[in-house]
Amino acid sequence: MPKVPMTVGGAEKLRSELNKLKTVQRPKISAAIAEAREHGDLRENAEYHAAREQQSFCEGRITEIESKLAESEVIDVTKINPSGRVIFGTTVTLYNLDSEETVRYQIVGEDEADVPSGKISVGSPIARAVMGKSEGDEIVVNAPAGEIAYEIESVEHL
């Protein structure tokens, strides 16, 4: 199975969530289940069923994160010599040739994408259009609103 690219920051965020789930959430849920058991009949015990549901969600998320980390290839773009070309993990500044606005995006893995914070998925139309291109190149992105022309102003390894 091919490895899924992930930035160092994305991997750290997942490891942090995993640690919190295992060391904080899991013990808290276990305590809630134990307390609910002490209340007697489990068939009509809403607290018990709610705690079991939380436990199920927590264990599912732990499994999901462990799987994502196992299937990922963490790429530290700061350890790659800058070539001026857009690659996974680089931060690219684009100049919109029509609106004359500048936008800045880091190209990240699918699970890390967060457009409001400037992180776009490697599979997004903009990322696909800029991958492998260099500073000064002009690209056209096929967006839902139509074609948008950009010039690549800078490529940074941050």
Number of domains: 2
- Percent of residues in helices comes to 25-40%
Class derived from helix and strand content: alpha/beta
CATH superfamily of the largest domain: Transcription elongation factor, GreA/GreB, C-terminal domain
Q: What is the count of β-strands?
A: 7
Oligomer: single chain
| Through-space gap between termini | 29 Å
Number of helices: 3
Order of helical and strand elements: EHHEEEEHEE
Give the DSSP E fraction (strand runs of 2 or more residues).
25-35%
Shape: elongated
Radius of gyration: 22 Å
Average of pLDDT: 93
**Residue windows where pLDDT falls under 50 for at least 5 positions:** none
Named at the architecture level, the CATH assignment of the largest domain is Roll
- Largest sheet report: 5 strands, mixed
Give the strand order, joined by hyphens, for the main sheet.
Answer: 5-4-3-7-6
Q: What is the CATH class designation of the largest domain?
A: Alpha Beta
Please tell me about this protein's structure.
Helices cover 39% and strands 26% of the residues. The chain is an alpha/beta fold and 158 residues long. The protein has 2 domains: 4-75, Helix Hairpins, CATH 1.10.287.180; 77-156, Chitinase A, domain 3, CATH 3.10.50. The strands form 2 sheets. It has a 5-stranded mixed β-sheet with strand order 5-4-3-7-6. It has a two-stranded parallel ribbon with strand order 1-2. A hairpin with a 5-residue loop joins strand 3 and strand 4. It is elongated, with a radius of gyration of 22 Å. The model has no long low-confidence stretch (mean pLDDT 93).
